[in-house]
Here is the input.
Amino acid sequence: MRKLLIVPAMLLLFLYGCGGARQEVRMNQLPAQPDTEKYVEVDAEAEVVPVPENDLVTKRNGVDAAKKAAVEKAVGVYITGQQMISKSLLISEKIFSKTTGYIKDYTVTSESMNGLFWKTGIHAKIRLGDIKNDIDALDLLIKTTAGNPRVMVVIGEVVDGETRNTGSAETLISGALLDAGYKLVDQSQLEQINAEDALKAAASGDEKAAAAIAKRFGADVAVVGRMTINTNPITIEPYNGWISGRGNLSLKVVKTTNGDMLMVYSKADNVPDISKEGAAASVSKRLSGVAGKELASSIGPKLVESNFIKVVLSPLPDLNALEKTKKWLKTFESVTDVTVRAFDEGAAEFEIELTYGSALDFAAKLQTGKGVNIKEAGGHSITAILEK
Here is the structure.
């Protein structure tokens, strides 16, 4: 029985061997998958206290400290120095505890004693996208906002040719701004200077006068203008015998740092009532209520737009070049802050806060520097090439 089984088995082996060239598939012959992750390269150094009589542990601690320093540089792209301090415990727990996971690979570039400390330098390749995602999950990503600007509201009221000081328009508009998170100059403070010519000029729409007064109270923005109301009898049905209140609200929103106008607002409406006082109050309430909501949604974005410009610079080969460029941009006189908004494939997008001037003004300043080639400059953005 055993002999009968052997013959078929040998026959199968013979047929398999004669079946032509065999196809061998090996794992190392499979096509490599493309690496779609985004990386940045950075040099970093750190110092640690040597472990007595244990060079191996000392070196390992030095490398770990240098890795953390490299990740700190990458984290600094996305959060402010103030956040780094105020949220240090959260960042340490959620970000720096995962230092090794952010580093794809690294090379030790230097090791030596520096006085009493062991100093280690590394060149690291970091997963910048992972860091950005983790910081965003903590709601710490730098966002472009105007913060909570302080606003001064001064609105003159004229009813049937007579100046009124009811303050109803100011109160309603101020309330809408306050509800939206704006800080306001206390109206009682403004009443102390109500008789000054400058305040009257501001209420009539003088931007420079408005900016000067707003500065006195630490305001970032002044909302100034006039509510003009005319009342007339109605002679047509169904409101025959009633009073028509025809109102016109004209406002200017002025930035106090330079007196520039952020926006102009104007709206008219008509409200009937049984008395002159009622018609005037009703149309004022309606116009002020609508204006308050529209101003609350517009002032912040307009203030941001006027303060910030976008500058795209390339080539910036690594995080070290990015860091140096950021510091260089801060040296310009009109610059108050610089934030990196994006860094990808050798190009960086910077958000620059200016105390004065426009993107065109700043482009002219950049152009005076050696090795800067302006490719495009508009109202709020600049694209430039850094020449070698």
Q: What stands out?
A: The chain has three domains: 39-137, 150-306, 315-386. The chain has 13 helices and 14 strands.
